[in-house]
Amino acid sequence: MFETFAAEVEPFDLASLDDSGIEAIKQLVYEQKLVVFRGQELADEEYIAFARRLGRPEPYFQEHYHHPDHPEIFVSSNVPVNGQKVGVAGTGRFWHSDYSFMEEPLSMTMIRPVVLPEGKRGTCFIDMELAYRELPEHLRQAVEGRRSLHDARNYYKVQPGDVDRAIIELVEEFHALSPGVWQPMVLTHPVSGEKALFVSRGFTLDVEGMRHEEAQALLTELFDRIERPERVYVHDWAKGDLLMWDNRSLIHRAAEQAPGQKSCSYRISLYDGLPFDAA
Ligand SMILES: [Fe+2]
């Protein structure tokens, strides 16, 4: 599908897979980084059951993102159900790797669109192993063996209950819940042994052992290089798609969507039981 990553799998019955089939799917994700299963019309229970066979699904740390009946499902939606807001609208419109701001980042993420807007809606991806391989020497030296700060504070989404509250209170409350974490700037994949650059414009805010200006200049140079348009793969969602990707080797963001369109997707993220970084 794309020069360096992404594979497409024709419709088949995911629920009928035996253990070796499940293992084969995980290996395909590690190898291809992004796999799109076509024609999957799963009930919520089937979707969760499939995730549980792959690993340990992790409910998002902020409950207002949860599906009302299934906390494992993270709901990105602007479609009310029975007049009630469900999940959060317009999530992930910036480059990131899921949960990189947590001590234990999520190994894999799955997304299935539930309500498809008219026009395009999809997810964009960048191969961070390729980004690492293409680093010029001065940048490779700058990131190797160094850590950077991942923090989600810039993307705290104001909730209806936040009305009349001071920004500083919201920031402090969010910081207590999610203080950010220092992560290696280069990861080693536990299955392939490949090295990947592990930074993103959304969540990487600082670099260890550098003055503020120096750190920001390095990060900007890295992000501008990583995000070159020819390195971005956009998957436009189709009905029945189930996307599954490796958070160790890809960063992603939600693609732009026409304003005013209804859109809803269900995400499940999971731990695959392997170390996030095998270095
Ligand atoms: Fe995400």
Notes on the protein architecture:
The protein is α+β, with helices and mostly antiparallel strands. It has one domain (7-271): 4-Layer Sandwich (Double-stranded beta-helix). Helices cover 23% and strands 24% of the residues. The strands form 4 sheets. Strands 1, 2, 3, 4, 5, 13 and 15 form a 7-stranded mixed β-sheet that branches. The mean pLDDT is 94.
Short description:
It is built from six helices and 15 strands. It is of the alpha+beta class and 279 residues long. The strands form four sheets. Strands 1, 2, 3, 4, 5, 13 and 15 form a seven-stranded mixed β-sheet that branches.
Cα(first) to Cα(last) distance is 30 Å
Overall domain count: 1
How large is the radius of gyration? 19 Å
Query: What is the architecture at the second tier of CATH?
Result: 4-Layer Sandwich
Low-confidence stretches: none
Strand content: 15-25%
* Estimated helix fraction: 10-25%
- Number of β-strand runs: 15
Q: What is the tally of helical segments?
A: 6
Corresponding CATH superfamily? Clavaminate synthase-like
Give the overall shape, derived from the CA principal axes. globular
Summarize model confidence as the mean pLDDT: 94
Major β-sheet, in short? 7 strands, mixed
Oligomer: single chain
Q: SS-based structural class?
A: alpha+beta
